Amino acid sequence: MTTPAPTPPPQLQVALGTAADPGSVHAITDTGTALLVTHYPASGAGRLHVLDPRTLAPVRPSLPVGHEPRAVAWHPGRGQAYVMNRGVQSYSVSRCDLATGTVTDIPIGFGLIAIAVDPVADLLYTADWAHKRLHVIELADTTQRRVVPLPSAPNRLAVAQDGTVYAALYVKGLVPADDALAVVRPDGTLTVAPIEPAHLQPGGVAVAHDGMIYVGSLGGGTVHPLFGVHDPDTGQRLGEVRTAAGVRDLAAVPGLSRAWLATDKGVQLVDTTNPYAPRTLDPITTGHAPYAVAVTANGTAHVGDVVDGTVSLIRPDVANLPLDAVATLLTEAGFAPTTGLGAAIRAYQTFHELPVTGRPDAVTAAHLTAPGCGTPDRTTTTGFVLQGGHFRHTNLTYHLGDMTMPYGRDEFTDALKHELIQVSFDVWREVLGENWYGPFEFTRVFDPAEADIVFSVGDDPVFHDTGWFRTVYAVTKWGAAPGWPDAGGQLPVIFNRKINWDAHGYFDVDLHGPDFRHVATHEIGHAFGLNHGKSGNVMHRNASWYRVPKSDDRNGLFAMYGRLPFTDGVGIRVLPEVDHVAYSDCERHLVVHYPEGDGWTWTRLTADVGAPRMARGSSPSPFFAHDGVPSYVYAGDGGHIYQIWYDQGQWWWGDLTQDSGGPPAVRYGPNAYRNGDTQRVVYSATDGRTIRLSQAPGEGWVWQDVSVEGAVAADGTPYGYVDGVTGLDVIVYRDAEEHLRMLWEGPEGWGQMSLTWATQAENPLPLTMMPVWGEHRAGERHRVFGLDHRQDIRMYAVGDDGAWHTRSLTAELGLPECSASAVQRVPGADGAPDGWLLVFADFDGGLWELTGDGDTWQAERVQIDGMPPVGRSVLSVWLGGGRLQITYTAANGNIQLLSRALGDHDWQRTNLTRVSDVV
Fold first, then answer.
1. Going along 576-627, which residue ranges are E strands?
2. Domain named Peptidase metallopeptidase: which ranges (predicted)?
């Protein structure tokens, strides 16, 4: 999970008070050359600060104003600031002449709550909440006043360029509520438009560059605060959006359909390009209680705080792209802002490896609007692979529909378009190489009903929904292909007919239009099931000229087609004469191959029974549960252990973690085995403990911490087996010191030792991460096998002296270095004791058998005509029906099954992947 980036702090912040008495900033306004800020300390003695809007440094000494100044308005014609003093000692407006530094008092009286200046008419408006009216004061002679009665109490004002005054009205707690926006025109006409829902408490008012009226609200109780856009003629609300918290103040951005809101949770940007559906971004924290906000001509926001006494500067980091367009582009890219625009932007930035700001900054806006593919990013899946989104057959068919290009050059014939599509198919086929088990075959068909992929040049809603903000070249319609990706699902790939398509390098004169070959290669990648990938690759959503798949593209194709299975197959004979080979596929399903009729088939067993998928990269552990019931145990997401077993003619599954009472999550393992009729599962937990799960017949699962004090934690999958003398369990594993560690169960508890330390006199090397294997029967010695750092097969055994000893079978027999191994016991001929069989692969892909009585060993290379080299790191060997079975994953991605009768060296080979026809 990606942690959201923290909200960026303001770029600059100054304190107008002291640490002991920070004071309050209730009002800010911009003069065009200076920032006017009111501030007062605990005493209430107010001052007007004049600051540089770029540096927040004073440009002149502050001026004394009245008690508790709460608002400031600027009159550019007079060069004067008007400061509203709401403290009980004032109830006045201070007129501040910035040129002379003189301050004069204009008495108003009780009820003063807001002011506004009309510089054209040379008027000062004050809101009188106590008497539900406006005072209109002639600034040439402040004794000349008139009153405009209002139906309810005004609390904030704004004046438009034409002299219309807008007043937010409400009386807190009044029933019925009278929240409204009053429109007072210069001719005295009054219009009142109610604002809903009730008790919204509308407050801040501002006039936008296009004349629209913005109103913020505090909300309260069950009413969430809103920001609304209102019709300047009627005052009616056109649209609204929820804000992060109650809006204390707001300011329109000059020249843009945007506003900054000072809310109780930070400063929030709102976009009103679509007035019927405004959009907001996540708030930015500037202090404990932002209360005032102003915006300069270049979009820089300045925020005052009433608790910290600070002024903060936020430089514009949001592109001019309207937020409504941002939301549309994000939705079309697969990042619908269902939980907020900021969250969607962060997800998009994270996915595309952009700076994670949570805001549509210039980089993000440019990325969103760049020409490219109209297929959405698939953000709900891991890596490249869609859930069920890749073909499971390799003989693909395609159909060319209407390929007319109205804006393409005349020489761009249908034959050339077909040639370019074929070339694009070929570059993907070449990624997998000649040795892949099932290279794609592409056949053109002339009936679209017979096609896997249908190409056409045409129109699609995604080509024009984004308007002028983004040009979409083509789209692959995953959701419009019923049955895809199975055979019979016609997948549409549509090229935009309005594009002036070009084919670079195919004409004498290059017109520099979009490259059809590149786009075809990109969309064919989608048809194969690839998501949008990293920049610099064909599958990047905004790539425009790459023609050959790059590293990210190649990895994606290999993940879905060229490197299946994701884990090596492990085998078991589950029913008489029925062999199973199981592995995890790229979608983390447990896939099982098994014979059917004269051939082989396969199934996704986890999907069949509805069991959770496997943890990525883990292999299943097959074994027989009690009563001979075949079973698979595996690790799933969340660190749980799951079991799937066959009983009473069907498969079942269970959550062993839940059933056993919630042991710690698995890190390495699990390994399943039996002790008599008791089922066992051992694994290494994420906290380093060694855990054993057990189920006796007729009883439930229980778990036990079998870690032993002094034993170093496992750094690999533990292997459990039964001591043939005591009948108790033994667990061996490679520990974090790269030693071979053994835990054994005794009558009084568990003991432990390092077999590496116990055999130090024989100079054993540390172990690799490859699986270890062990066994002990009555009358025999313990034998444990692993691979050391020299890639030698190393055996540990108890000698005649009762001490542990170690041997390098590789060195003794002069064998090549080992890359993978598996061990099995085989029955002796004519009543002889059971023998040992060790199968290993060398680094050249060769396969070898080591056979013997456990002390004396013979080596033989497995030779089969046409046998592909071993490619993976895990082998599986088992017995069934008097035959020896070996599985491995070949270098070309096939699962190979080798089989021979015991006592016979005539091997038979079956390519399970090929005969089962599974991708």
1. 578-584, 590-596, 599-604, 621-624
2. 389-563
Cβ-contact 280, 229 below 8 angstroms: no
**What's the confidence (pLDDT) of residue 544?**
61
Distance separating alpha carbons of residues 518 and 819, to the nearest angstrom: 41
Domain with 435 in it: what CATH number? 3.40.390.10
582 burial via Cβ count (<10 Å: 0-12, 13-18, 19+) = buried
Q: How much is the pLDDT for 56?
A: 95
Give the CA count within 13 Å in the CB-facing half-sphere of 40. Answer: 20
Which residues on adjacent β-strands are paired with residue 263? Answer: 247, 266
* Torsion angle of C-alpha atoms 743, 744, 748, 749, degrees rounded to 10: 30
Tokens standing for residue 154: 């005004």
What letter would DSSP give residue 437?
A: S
What value, to the nearest 5°, has the Cα angle with vertex 222 and ends 219 and 228? Answer: 35
* Single pTM value for the model: 0.52
Below-70 pLDDT ranges, the chain: 1-9, 173-177, 379-389, 392-394, 433-439, 465-468, 482-488, 512, 543-545, 559, 562-569, 573-576, 586-587, 872-873, 892-893, 917-919
Order across the sheet with 818-826: list the strands.
Answer: 818-826, 835-842, 847-852, 857-861
What is the pLDDT, as a whole number, of residue 303?
97
> Are the CB atoms for 819 and 845 separated by under 8 Å?
no
**Rounded-to-integer distance, Cα 664 and Cα 683, Å:** 10
Residue among 618, 512, 659, 632 at smallest CA distance from 574: 632
Tens-digit pLDDT profile for residues 361-411: 877 887 888 778 888 887 644 445 444 567 766 678 899 999 999 988 888
392: in domain: yes
Q: Answer whether residue 505 is part of any domain.
A: yes
Closest CA to 517 of 426, 420, 374: 420
Surface-to-core class of residue 747, CB atoms within 10 Å of its CB (0-12 exposed, 13-18 middle, 19+ buried): exposed
How many domains, in total, are found in the chain? 1
Instruction: Judge residue 117's burial from the number of C-beta atoms within 10 Å of its C-beta, 0-12 exposed, 13-18 middle, 19 or more buried.
Output: buried
What is the number of other CB atoms lying within 10 angstroms of the CB of residue 662? 10
How many angstroms separate the Cα of 611 from the Cα of each of 354, 634, 641? 37, 11, 11
Give the span between the Cα atoms of 124 and 73, in whole angstroms: 9
Strands (E), 139-179: 145-149, 154-159, 165-169
**Residue 892 pLDDT:** 62
pLDDT digits (tens, 9 = 90+) for 209-245: 878 899 999 988 788 999 999 988 899 998 899 999 9
Helix H or strand E encompassing 758: helix 755-758
3-class state of residue 344 by DSSP? helix
Q: Measuring CA to CA, which residue among 126, 149, 123, 153 is closest to residue 138?
A: 123
Q: Is 384 among the domain residues? A: yes
d(CA 187, CA 172): 30
State the Cα–Cα distance between residues 178 and 195, nearest whole angstrom: 8
Within a domain: 791: no
CA distance 585 to 699: 33
DSSP 448: G
Can you say whether residue 122 is alpha, beta or left, with left for phi > 0 and alpha for psi between -120 and 50 degrees? left
The pLDDT, as a whole number, for residue 468 is 53
Long-range contacts of 90-96 (CB under 8 A, 24+ apart): 90/66, 92/66, 93/124, 93/126, 94/46, 94/48, 94/65, 94/66, 94/69, 96/48, 96/63, 96/65
Beta bridge partners of 582: 570, 592
Q: Which long-range contacts (CB under 8 A, 24 or more apart) does 305-309 make?
A: 305/24, 305/25, 306/24, 306/25, 306/26, 307/22, 307/24, 308/15, 308/22, 309/15, 309/16, 309/17, 309/22, 309/23, 309/24, 309/25, 309/39, 309/41
Residues 6+ apart with CB under 8 A from 419: none
Residue at 672: amino acid letter: A
Range of the domain at 413: 373-562
- How many other CB atoms are found less than 10 A from the CB of residue 306? 22
